[in-house]
Write a structure and sequence with these properties.
Helix content: 25-40%
Structural class: alpha+beta
Number of helices: 9
Strand order of the largest sheet: 3-2-1-5-8
Largest sheet: 5 strands, mixed
CATH architecture of the domain at 255-380: Orthogonal Bundle
Bound molecules: dinuclear copper ion
Order of helices and strands: HHHEEEEEEEEEEHHEEHHHH
CATH superfamily of the domain at 255-380: Cytochrome c-like domain
CATH class of the domain at 255-380: Mainly Alpha
CATH topology of the domain at 255-380: Cytochrome Bc1 Complex, Chain D, domain 2
Distance between the termini: 71 Å
Amino acid sequence: MRTPLFRGTKRWGLLGTCLLLSSILLSACGENSPSILNTYGPVAHSESYVFWVILVIASIVFVGVEGMLLYSIFKFRERPGMPHPRQNHGNLKIEIIWTIVPMIVLFVVLFFTVQGLLQVAPENQPTDKPVINVEAYGHQWWWEFYYPDYKITTADSLHIPAGSTIHVDLYSNNVIHSFWVPALTGKTDLIPGHHNQKWFQADQNAVGKTFLGICAEYCGTQHGNMRFEVVVDDNNQFQTWISTQQQAAATPAGGLAAQGATLFASQCTSCHGIVGVDLKPNQGQQNQYGYNDPEKTCDLPNSSCLIGPNLTHFGSRHLIAGGVLAYDANSPACNPDNPNLLKECGLAQWLNDPQGVKPGNDMAINQLTPDQIKELVAYLESLK
Ligand code: CUA
């Protein structure tokens, strides 16, 4: 015997509860969760505008069509003794109306979409604001950012000044990635062998905020762990950040950090660069290995190109390995004297077992002892 799906108040209650709970799920958007609707720059404003236009048009169509359908179902439902309804098959007038009206609706959608596309196109990058140039490199699976005008390299952390135009050149030498900062700009792919560009700006009310950036194109098993942060500064903060980043890494005077520095120089420099250790200052982009752009060649003194992130000012960053772990150099958890360092500090967890934390990544190291991890943590977090 078939059981009806919703029998009795219990099941209807269950359905109601599920609906209510799902509305909580859908509304769980805190201030820091990436949203294309909570925008902080003209490019994202323009893109969310297109979204709203389409949503409003689609809603009107939905309500109109469903309304007519429901009205017809109730108004013209069959009653005993009713004659057959009039048949409209082949009615030329109706055929023309329901061809033309959707056409007009779709042309309106097309108009707003093309208008939005033109507003954010690389060709229409505004010329009235100072320009900050950034080269973004998609690795498997982390982001490298190089500022050619300042000759500094960071990983997974992009600082930008509010009110400037950020021009981004996008490169990949492996697979296709996609650069996406929902609050600031939509997605643009990084395609091997193809030079894509984009621009965006952050409004003044974004100053002091950090936005989540995401890889938006499936690029391998750790695609979901390919995040970055965009820190929006005011002009002064940005200039301070630039001049700090341009300095070579400080050499620790002694103690654990100095031991860590020695260990780093002997074990880590075949993959990682630190200005002042194995990289010279102002040397330009250090970290490329075989990019397809002929102008982008590795120019390391030892001509071996680095495959890991440049760590010159690692202590000022907040994400490890594309955000698979969070990190705060100032937190008590990452104090090298913390007895639970290996469990509580993201950096120590990473150094202890990079393949366990993020299987398939390029970090291949011999197992470090807890003391070595302590020394490296002390050294790396001294690199502010
Ligand atoms: Cu890179 Cu997905």
